[in-house]
Design goal:
Strand order of the largest sheet of chain A: 3-5-1-14-11-12-13
Number of strands of chain A: 29
CATH architecture of the largest domain in chain B: Roll
Largest sheet of chain B: 5 strands, mixed
CATH superfamily of the largest domain in chain A: Aldehyde oxidase/xanthine dehydrogenase, molybdopterin binding domain
Largest sheet of chain A: 7 strands, mixed
CATH topology of the largest domain in chain B: Ubiquitin-like (UB roll)
Strand content of chain B: 15-25%
Oligomer: heterodimer
Number of domains of chain B: 2
Number of helices of chain B: 6
Number of helices of chain A: 17
CATH superfamily of the largest domain in chain B: Beta-grasp domain
Strand order of the largest sheet of chain B: 3-2-6-4-5
Structural class of chain B: alpha+beta
Number of domains of chain A: 3
Strand content of chain A: 15-25%
Distance between the termini of chain A: 51 Å
Shape of chain A: globular
Order of helices and strands of chain B: EHEEHEEEHHHHEE
Radius of gyration of chain A: 27 Å
Structural class of chain A: alpha+beta
Helix content of chain A: 25-40%
CATH architecture of the largest domain in chain A: 2-Layer Sandwich
Radius of gyration of chain B: 19 Å
Number of strands of chain B: 8
């Protein structure tokens, strides 16, 4: 059967403190080295401390800012090729059905129609079944986008509807139709530690509650899409991708052609958040259509397709029985958890999240339903594990009448890499005015109640190879740094220039970064908050190696040994005798026609893994309308050596806002009878606007001694839980599932009363 | 199991196509009102001449009446003006925001044929060569953009706001930009950027 359940992705869901770079569930592989021996540790002369950091750690505006604000930046969506045609996919409206017949005759009569491709051949019993709304059936090509839409609409498909699993509850209860093999529910092995019975015996109080988070989708502003152009048997593809190299490999394996025949380009990309780590089937369809049409074809998905087929954050739920001792130590934790990642995809998440509980058990079930499959979404698993664990934390803290901050500190792991939570909790409490927090339930009269909440996070990040950077210094003083990484909006292009400039004593604007193209060599995908840490060592070493060669060229003229020279302030000069030297431009004139080139890969020793973060949130709740407004958030976050203070802060703002959306607004809503998504758009799939944004304070902790770690994901983990706890603190009623809709809040108040 | 046949469905576009010249142009049409096709002065469905005034230049196009302002400039103009983006295609995200007679509009939900004779400005025409508009400068300085896909729409909405309110209050800024969505989460910095442009100048 098509789309039968895939083998489990990795092992049981990661447990506890996220582990070091513990590739969370569903995380794409980050260009591992396989069985190759690890490269030797970095020569100390290349280390971050070997030169004075003049650019690294400062606030540098994005080099591509002017191109983006003026509309000159060309995204895949903007690519136009001579003779380009437009593709469009016809998708199943049903969650589970067999394609019985496809009739293209009406489509072929549509003006501008060029060609079509039947993706699900009714005669092929192996592939003629669609497993979710939006599953690909047919693709068409026409001369304009409007005509492609007309042609797609004119394609007639007969379906035999099949029973579908729509409800997770029904699947768990065994009342749903049997759709997936071997079963709709895949139980995992229970993870146990300590002595649970003894733990409950030692408890002064216990709770037994069920917590849940919902499915949300990535909603990248630029949809997934591709422009494919063939030259004989060579393919050039502009792709909205978080990994040009992995996209190339996906094309090669999907089309059965050598990797060397594929060039993938992604200069600008409108957001990925994990959904663009791997090439979707629409990419391969676009390549096939272009081949078939004998012309370049552009295939961009529309908003509805984005919601249905390009991934989502899986749901998560857990029934938790937990016990706490009179002095505030969690003595026992027993969780039955489940979640759905859609049709045949896993839904793992870490539980309990971070806190140390000696006696614990956790058993997890993946539930398969007939919807599009999950893909990694910004900190996969962590926001879910965080929400479930942190709400429980406050419920337990209230049982023993302890302050939530103190209760958290008391239950933190005693041993964990980079465990900074206690420090940040105390600092944050002071800065946020936590001492003004009232006990659960705002006693202030009037309908608007105010509350505060706190939650913590961790993430692996870290660097790995291969990520080979190529540095070129030309006789006109031009510096180019080339590597096959990509900028998905994080500011990676600017980082490439910054790290290079920092090593060469130049300004970032003096460096030309060349990225976003497989022609620039191998580098990993932008996932797992690994890009900065994976690319910056190779960039720095390649730049310093090229600089060594340049010093050799100018040393005789300055009458010193090459190692007596330093590159500083746009000059190559003698250490301790700055007046003796050459300007960068003059020094480079000695290079001659053959430019200096050097290349280097990632090396251990310049990066490390694991971040800590703490967030405080303040929210108001109108108890008459149930409307929540987040007023303030404080995010304290570390990420090792901060490369660009400006863009690293932006990552924190973005993470907080993403998590606020998760907490209050976003929700993929399915029709319980038809299994169709009822809000596949951007007006009923709610997202925060300017008026919903709180004041956000970011305190970024710079830890140069740790090297580069990565910042993209950790700040999006704890906000949702902190907001939910602020709401609980305000109202005195607990909502144990996301999103915190007005209806749920009013219901919780009613239950309390 | 019952068999069901997929019928070519009714769509917003086909609705717009039907009423292309009837004056129902902008906005989200969530329900199809009963329109008597005979009563409208039908234009199309094939290509018709459309003349637009974009960034002070006259642009003559031959497009179907159903083509939106956004698509007309992105896909039918030569050279194409791809600065403004399509995020949702139904007037919810604001990435397509352009100024029509100084008023921000969702170009994805505005028919090109309906804005003939009006003054259209998009992000492609905002900078004077290499010299950025003060709002564009402010966005760069404050890092008010990440992936940059929503940025052109935010910039045009900000320009429209600042032309109407040269010294906007915080609430005016919030309200003025509430029609735009940024998924990367740059709102705080967009707010800072717009606040830093006073009286149309960088303060």
């Amino acid at each position: 059967m098509a789309n039968a359940p895939q083998p489990p992705q990795g092992q049981a869901p990661p447990q506890g403190a996220g582990g070091r770079g513990a590739a969370p569930q569903g995380q794409a592989p980050q260009g591992g080295r396989g069985n190759q021996p690890a490269p030797p540790p970095v020569d100390p002369k290349y280390n971050w401390t070997s030169t004075s950091r003049t650019v690294v750690g400062t606030r540098v505006q994005r080099l591509d800012g002017p191109d983006k604000v003026s509309g000159r930046a060309k995204y895949t969506f903007d690519v136009a090729r001579p003779g380009m045609l437009y593709g469009r996919v016809v998708r199943s409206p049903y969650p589970h059905a067999r394609v019985v017949a496809v009739d293209l005759s009406a489509a072929q009569r549509v003006p501008g129609y060029k060609t079509a491709l039947v993706h699900r051949d009714p005669k092929d019993e192996k592939t003629n079944v669609v497993m979710y709304q939006g599953d690909e059936v047919v693709a068409v090509v026409a001369d304009t986008e409007e005509h492609a839409i007309d042609a797609a609409r004119a394609v007639k498909v007969d379906y035999e509807m099949l029973p579908a699993v729509i409800s997770v509850d029904a699947a768990l209860a065994g009342t749903a139709p049997a759709v997936f093999t071997p079963a709709n529910v895949r139980p995992g092995n229970a993870q146990e530690a300590g002595d649970l019975a003894a733990g409950f015996k030692a408890a002064a109080h216990t709770i037994d509650e069920t917590y849940a988070t919902h499915v949300i989708t990535h909603v990248c502003m630029e949809s997934h899409g591709t422009v494919c152009e063939w030259d004989g048997d060579k393919l050039t593809a502009w792709v909205t991708t978080q990994g040009v190299n992995s996209a190339r490999d996906n094309f090669a394996s999907g089309l059965g052609i050598p990797q060397s025949n594929v060039r993938v380009i992604c200069q600008y990309m409108g957001g990925g958040f994990g959904s663009k780590l791997q090439l979707g089937v629409e990419g391969l369809i676009c390549a096939r259509l272009a081949k078939q049409a004998g012309a370049p074809v552009k295939l961009m998905l529309d908003r509805k397709e984005e919601h249905l087929v390009t991934g989502n954050r899986p749901s998560a739920a857990a029934r938790v029985k937990a016990g706490v001792s009179a002095d505030g130590i969690i003595t026992a934790f027993d969780a039955e958890s489940w979640g759905t990642g859609g049709a045949g995809a896993a839904a793992g998440f870490p539980l309990p999240y971070i806190y140390q509980i000696a006696n614990r058990r956790r058993a997890h079930k993946d539930v398969f339903i007939n919807t599009g499959q999950q893909r990694p979404m910004r900190a996969p698993g962590h926001p879910q594990g965080s929400f479930i664990t942190e709400i429980m934390m406050d419920e337990l803290a209230d049982k023993v009448k302890m302050d939530p901050v103190e209760f958290r500190i008391k239950n933190l792991p005693t041993q964990a890499p980079n465990a900074m939570w206690a420090t940040y909790l105390r600092e944050g409490a002071e800065a946020f005015g936590w001492s003004k927090r009232h006990p659960t339930g705002d006693p202030t009269p009037g309908p608007v109640k105010t509350g505060m909440g706190v939650a913590i996070c961790t993430w692996g990040g870290g660097g790995r190879g291969p990520s080979v950077a190529h540095c070129e210094i030309a006789s006109d003083g031009g510096v180019t740094m080339r590597l096959g990484t990509q900028d998905i909006g994080t500011g990676q292009r600017t980082l490439v220039a910054m790290v290079t400039a920092d090593a060469l004593g130049l300004q970032p604007s003096q460096v030309t970064p060349e990225i976003g193209d497989t022609q620039f060599g191998v580098s990993g995908g932008s996932g797992g908050s690994t890009t900065a840490a994976s690319t910056s060592p190779g960039i720095r070493i390649a730049a310093l190696k090229a600089l060594e060669a340049l010093k050799e060229k100018v040393a005789p003229e300055l009458g010193v040994a090459a190692d007596a020279l330093v590159a500083q302030g746009g000059r190559i000069q003698v250490k301790d005798t700055p007046s003796k030297g050459l300007s960068w431009a003059d020094a480079c004139k000695r290079i001659g026609t053959q430019a200096i080139t050097a290349e280097a890969d990632w090396q251990p020793g310049m990066t490390s893994a694991t971040t800590s973060g703490v967030q405080f949130a303040e929210a108001t709740v109108d108890v008459q309308t149930g409307i929540v407004k987040v007023t303030r958030v404080l995010a304290i976050q570390d990420c090792g050596l901060v490369l660009n203070q400006l863009t690293a802060e932006s990552q924190c703002y973005g993470g907080v806002i993403g998590s606020l959306n998760f907490a209050l607004f976003e929700d993929r809503i399915l029709d319980r009878n038809t299994g169709q998504m009822v809000n596949p758009n951007m007006e009923w799939y709610l997202l925060a606007g300017m008026s919903d944004i709180p004041h956000i304070d970011v305190r970024l902790k710079n830890m140069p001694e740790r090297g580069v770690v990565g910042i993209g994901e950790p700040p999006t983990v704890p906000t949702a839980a902190a907001i939910a706890l602020a709401v609980r603190n305000a109202t005195g009623a607990t909502v144990r599932s996301l999103p915190l809709t007005p209806m749920k809040i009013l219901q919780s108040l009613q239950q309390k009363a | 199991m019952p068999k069901r046949k997929d019928e070519p469905g009714f769509s917003r576009r086909s609705f717009l196509k039907t009423v292309g010249a009837s004056g129902v142009a902008a906005g989200v049409l969530s329900k199809a009102p009963a329109v008597d096709a005979q009563a409208v002065n039908a234009v199309g469905p094939g290509a018709v001449p459309v003349t637009l005034n974009v960034n002070g230049q006259s642009l003559r196009l031959s497009i179907e009446p159903r083509v939106t302002l956004l698509d007309a400039l992105r896909m039918h103009a030569n050279p194409p003006m791809t600065g403004n983006k399509r995020g949702c295609d139904r007037g919810a995200c604001g990435a397509c925001t352009m100024l029509v007679d100084n008023r921000p509009v969702y170009a994805c939900s505005t028919l090109a044929i309906e804005v003939q004779g009006k003054r259209i400005r998009n992000v492609d025409g905002l900078a004077s060569g290499e010299r950025l508009h003060p709002v564009q400068q402010a966005f760069c300085e404050k890092d008010a953009l990440m992936c940059g896909f929503c940025t052109p729409g935010f910039i045009m909405a900000s320009v429209g706001l600042l032309e109407k309110h040269p010294n906007p209050t915080p609430d005016q800024i919030k309200k003025g930009l509430d029609g735009n969505i940024c998924r990367c989460g740059t709102f705080n910095r967009i707010f800072e950027a717009v606040s830093s442009v006073k009286g149309g100048q960088r303060g």
